Amino acid sequence: MISASGIVPLLVLGGCNSSSDSDSTSSESPTLSQAAAWAESVCTAVDGLRTSVSSLGSNLTVGPTPSAGALDQLKAQLGTQIASITASVDELTTTLAGVPTDLPGAEQAKASLETAANTFKTSVQTLIQQAQALESATTNSQALLLAGPALGALQAAVGAAQMFAGDVETVVDQAGGELKAAFASAPSCTTLTTSPSPSST
Question: Topology of 4-11+32-60+67-191 in CATH?
Fold first, then answer.
């Protein structure tokens, strides 16, 4: 998360010499700090969902003749990861809705980001459905049959995550101004160009 100590000095350095400078700074600080906080929270939520999706791949390990114990372990791992992905989707939805209302261009950017996020979330919902089907497998043969579609859905979701990360960058760049500056200064936003790879096991 963004450190307040990294932002506050930049906002108050000019306010030590006169009351007029201080008044100017105090009128600008809320918008700037809100923009930076929202940008950081959006990128954190996007990266969190992408990480949750990618982590699911590391647990999709079904060998040619899995033991009953291995199948039970896989199902337990899937249950945990499905819950994590679902929570990450909810966090992204809530975060996008929390745009600062007084930030120029933010409402338009929010609408564009929500449209792009819906495509990503659709692929995630497909992944969840396939993972739940695999989680419900009662035999080794069922697990092997369902592992293929689940892996395909995983790969599609990871691809959609990277596409959404690009959409975020495009929307912010087009918005310009304080919104672009806020995203450029947010540490979590610098990681969105890195694409995690799903496991193929």
Answer: Four Helix Bundle (Hemerythrin (Met), subunit A) (1.20.120)
